[in-house]
Amino acid sequence: MAKPLEIYSGFITRHPITVIFIMLLVTVYSIQMIGTIETKKSDTKSMLPNDVESIYTLNSIENEFGSTNAVFLAVEVDPTYQGSDEVRDVRDPRALAYLDQLSELSLHTEKVIDVTSATTVLKSINNGRLPQSEREVEELAGKNGLLINYISSDYSVSLVKIQTTDDVDLIEIEKELDKLIQELPRPPGLTTTLGGMSMEGAVMQKSIGPDMAKTSTYSLIGILIIILVLFRSIKYGFTPMSTIIFGTIWAMGFVGFIGMGMSSQTSGVLSMIMGIGIDFGIQVVTRYRFELLNIPALKESHPDLDIGPKDAMAVTLNNVIIPMFTTTLAALIGFQAMSLGKLTFLGDMGTIMSYGVAASMVAAITIVPALMIIIDNMNISKYLNKYMKFINRSR
Amino acid sequence: MADFLETNLKKLAEIQKKHTKVLAIAVILITIILGIGLKNLTINSDFRKEMPTDLPIFALNDRISAKFGGQDMVLIAVQIDESVDSKNAIRDIRDPRVIQSLILLDQDLRGETSVTSVMSPASFFRGENTPSPENITQTIRSNPSMNGFFSKNYKMVLMFVNTDIGSGEDQIQNFNKILQEHIDNTPKPTGVKFGITGQPIIRMTIFDLLKSDAVITLIVSAVVILLLLFLMERTYTHALLVFAPLSLGLIWTMGTLGWLGIPLSVATVGLSSMILGLGVEYGVFVLTRYNEERDKNISQLESMKTTVHAIGTAVIGSGLTTIVGFGVLSFATIPMMQHLGQTLALGIAYCLLAALFVNPVFILLEEDFEYWNTHRKLEKLAAKKEMHVQRVR
User: What is the mean pLDDT of residues A319-330?
Assistant: First the structure.
């Protein structure tokens, strides 16, 4: 095993610029691919196993009764003033007229296939006519038990149930129905809100982007603080950061490349990949610094040898690659085991994290050593002197 | 910080060398104390608790569920069984024989104390003891609103059972048993099958799956990781030296969850496999570095000092960054992610502690045992040789 490792470490230490160039090309392509990542609605149903009886029955019901993309408009009694003329019972004729208009207009919204409400039920049992008093509603309710699906027992809430097509964009329909709620004149004392289980998915879908941005920023800042404190050096502090910067770009680029998409369950992966991926960078840099400290003693004992940062890095790579490989494999096993259960809520998360950890490991044994060698072989004082001379001349 | 760490880590290595056995006993005691918490570890199957219920849409849906009884609603689906090939088999779910069956089930279920209401086509025949098939057909025709219970192709009919069984797993399990008994006792025509579903039943199913999933993922990941360690370390003892502290870290994590009353949920069911997968890193680095030093013929103490201070700094840095990476998930909107991040951060913290405090102790103990064992064997062989020489003489 030592031979291939030595060949590899020899290549990296001799051709750091070539390594950086190749990896930058991969990075550019990955960035392009990141642009193709789409956010997707979290579908709880798809995460449940179909071979369990209760879930099989649920799926059969949904197959037989059509789309499960049901949303509803909840019309609630919410009077502002005591003793006012505001609606206090959803059976109030003004509320019923409003519910009827809501039902009619919702039906004309794109991707809506069916709308049912208290008024559609009442009209079906009252010759197409809306009842004109609460008492009349009560009498009709006695004839039909279905009304309790639309009017709550305390008469404070009424539902307009809207069934949509399977391919509906819930964010779009939310916009359309919100517009309808805003534009349709509402009797005083009523509030209308859009609800339904599928809308929960849409709301969570909207939070994926901001959540990822927030958690990954906090993660990046936290990690940077820890390694700057740990290494007490800008150079050695920032270099391991390249592991997670490149690692996450490559991993997310791969997610885009295979068209996997991001859901609310996978929204935390970036910060987690950063937290795990930085370990590889830290291991390489710590060992490298340790080997650098040994150079003066080695030079003293072997004055004829030309030992430098390249040799320190070669020793580092020879010694850290196998443990890093072992830990990467173990991490991948841990992540993949998450998909082995019947509930696969976090299966996608495990898969993306596997990509992230593998990519971070690759970054740690390519970008990090190449960068360290370039930086350590660069004569910074020479460049600084040149810069100062240039400044003085221009004055 | 680095100087402080280096000085104290070297001191730690000295203590570990000097008081190896005392530390090993301390580790066992800590494991027993935290391990007791394992028996308090519970499972939460309520998926709702992992959702951001403080968001307006979730609050509204919960309010509506409370008003319309959606959360405790159980659905009984009566479906045509296509596999039955009989002349008498039901081919249209509106068949009076199916409705009669539903009427009997409706009467039975309404007698149950935990059932608050039952809705199905049978609701239209309440008060009639045994409606005739003609009467049933006539009622279905004259009540178009009954169509809501039938699927469009008339292959399925639904019965909605509202209950007040609450969220306790035992209550749900008992109710499911009662419901199944009622269904079993209801006379059914040939060619139909009954299925039960709904939020409480699915919650119970998730509860059972969570239990089996937690065990499966733990066993699979533990076995595969152990095999990997055997392969990479090439000796059983070295593989176990990495794996044992890791297992302790896992026991401590689960025990702490039990002590704190934090249940395992859909978010944390895969926790053990992730902790094993991630925590293995620290032990591997500690053992590899120690062996590297020992291979140079450096003494136990000096090797441990170099290992603990050189690897310790890196391992603490790695562990802390991983904890930060997981911990920041506390800022996520979805509680599922928050719980996952927090429990993983706890798990990694314990694995880190196990690698720094337990791993060196185990390594030293193993080496001492190996030395003692080899010495004992050598003494035995020497005695045997002496005996042999004396006999020959």
Answer: 88
Inter-chain CB pairs, A–B, below 8 Å:
294
Rounded-to-integer distance, Cα A289 and Cα A232, Å: 12
Q: State yes or no: pLDDT of A68 exceeds 60.
A: no
d(CA B157, CA A21): 65
Distances (CA, A) of B75 to B107, B200, B201, B231: 16, 10, 9, 52
Cα A355 → chain centroid: 15
- For residue B166, what pLDDT band results from cuts at 50, 70 and 90? low
Domains of chain B by range and CATH? 2-40+235-392 (1.20.1640.10), 70-203 (3.30.70.1430)
Name which of A153, A215, A286 is nearest B331 (Cβ-Cβ).
A215
Alpha carbons A152 and B67: distance in angstroms, whole number: 6
Structure token digits, residue B349? 């913290």
φ/ψ (deg, to 5) at B118: -130, 135
Contact at CB, B209 and A267, closer than 8 angstroms: no
DSSP helix/strand/coil, B198: strand
Amino acid type, A180? L
Mean pLDDT value across residues A366-382: 83
DSSP string covering A327-386 = HHHHHHHHHHHTTSSS--TTHHHHHHHHHHHHHHHHHHHHHHHHHHHHHHHS-HHHHHHH
Instruction: Give burial (CB, 10 Å; 0-12/13-18/19+) of A259.
Output: exposed
Beta strands in A127-167 (DSSP E): 157-164
- A331 to B280: CB separation less than 8 angstroms, yes or no: yes
Residue identified by tokens 């996608």 is A348
Q: How far is A81 from chain B (nearest CA, A)?
A: 23
Q: Which of B214, B331, B336 lies nearest to residue A214, judging by beta carbons?
A: B331
Which residues of chain B neighbour A279 with C-beta distances below 8 Å?
281, 318, 321-322
Rg of the Cα trace of chain B?
32
A218–B331 CB contact, under 8 Å: yes
CB pair distance less than 8 Å for A275 and B228:
no
Buried b (16+ CB within 10 A) or exposed e, A219-232: bbebbbebbbebbe
Residue contact A222–B321, C-beta within 8 A: yes
Domains and CATH numbers, chain A: 2-45+207-381 (1.20.1640.10), 69-195 (3.30.70)
For A161, the enclosing helix (H) or strand (E) is strand A157-164
- A76 in Cβ contact with A157 (< 8 Å): yes
Tokens describing residue B179: 């419901």
Higher pLDDT, B49 or A2: B49
